[in-house]
Design goal:
This protein has 306 residues and is of the alpha+beta class. The protein folds into three domains: 7-117, 3-Layer(aba) Sandwich (Rossmann fold), CATH 3.40.50.620; 153-205, Adenine nucleotide alpha hydrolases-like domains (SH3 type barrels, Roll); 209-303, Translation factors (Elongation Factor Tu (Ef-tu), domain 3, Beta Barrel), CATH 2.40.30. It has helices at residues 7-23, 30-49, 85-88, 108-117, 139-147; strands at 55-56, 61-66, 71-76, 99-100, 155-158, 164-168, 191-196, 201-205, 211-222, 232-237, 245-253, 256-266, 273-278, 281-293. The strands form three sheets. Strands 9-12-11-10-13-14 form a six-stranded antiparallel beta barrel. A hairpin with a 4-residue loop joins strand 7 (191-196) and strand 8 (201-205).
Length: 306
């Protein structure tokens, strides 16, 4: 067997990006980058260079061939609680024919039962929900250790009218939708709804400011479809474990998309991924760059009184 050292790839493609995104006021998803650049990038290329026909991983996803459309397509795993298709959209479509997901058609419980049957020492291993390279102290401590606490420059909290309402500790410490640990008392609940790197400003406001009618996203990857300029009705997820919602997808160009939700969505977060689905099929996804704000009459009724 072979052992490969991809430490440089992990540092250059994943950890550096993770760090830079937070320092730019965005909230990254390193698992998406890892699948794109490491597992189905560097590792895939190495396997192919050694004459391997396939690469098999333990992801909960399914790849099959659509005879009608004459292409391979990525689909959700059968276990909705473990489905990892949200993190897999960044795979290049050219790799699908050489990738196997043997667990995709099984539930997590069935996998554990098989592991016990074959006396595997991981049969009862606890599940990890953490980012593999971030220690228990959390991402903030990780960033401080990596770039130095002096990089975290304090700045203003501002409200929607531009009034300064407090001081933040550095934009990397905050994310869209955050309510806790802001240290602001305005007499009503406030949330982070925009982070502006150019002015080192964190904007806070009431719940209504979290809602967006759509988004613009870049780094588009279409894994199970070809580029089209038609507007498509799709289901989208704007974060892992969030229910899919109906939306209308328009490819602005081959690297950028515009998504308009059927109903406004909360906490659209730059740096996170928006993933597009057609039933069980993962059409593709992109990295969110900006939210498209609602006007008051577009807000959900339950927020109108805030």
């Amino acid at each position: 067997h072979y052992v490969f050292n991809f430490a440089k790839d992990i540092n250059d493609f994943i950890i550096d990006d993770f760090t830079n995104e937070y320092l730019n006021g965005r909230t990254p998803n390193p698992c998406v980058r890892c699948n794109q650049h490491l597992k189905f990038g560097s590792l895939y290329d190495k396997v192919k260079s050694l004459g391997g026909d396939y690469i098999a991983t333990g992801h909960y996803g399914i790849i099959d061939y659509n005879n009608e459309r004459q292409l391979f397509q990525l689909k959700k795993g059968v276990d909705p609680r473990k489905d990892q298709s949200y993190f897999l959209y960044s795979m290049k479509k050219e790799t699908l024919s050489s990738v196997l997901f043997p667990l995709g058609g099984l539930t997590k419980q069935e996998v554990r039962d098989l592991a016990r049957k074959y006396n595997l020492n991981t049969a009862d291993k606890p599940e990890s929900q953490d980012i593999c390279f971030v220690p228990d102290a959390g991402y903030k401590k990780f960033l401080e250790d990596r770039v130095g606490k002096e990089v975290m420059i304090p700045g203003d909290f501002k409200d929607e009218e531009g009034n300064t309402v407090g001081q933040h500790k550095g934009i990397a410490y905050y994310t869209i939708g955050q309510r806790d640990k802001l240290g602001i008392a305005l007499g009503y609940p406030v949330y982070v709804y925009k982070i502006e790197k150019s002015t080192n400003t964190v904007y806070v406001g009431n719940l209504t400011h979290l809602y967006a009618k759509g988004l613009i996203a870049g780094q588009l990857n279409l894994v199970s479809m070809n580029f089209t300029q038609e507007t498509l009705e799709v289901k989208v997820r704007i974060r892992y474990n969030q229910p899919e919602v109906k939306a209308y997808l328009t490819c602005v160009n081959e690297g950028q998309v515009k998504v308009i939700f059927e109903t406004p969505q909360k906490s659209v977060t730059p740096g996170q991924s928006v993933v597009f689905y057609d039933g069980e099929v993962v059409l593709g996804g992109a990295i969110i760059d900006e939210a498209i704000a609602c006007v008051p009459q577009e807000l959900p009724l339950e927020t109108a009184q805030h």
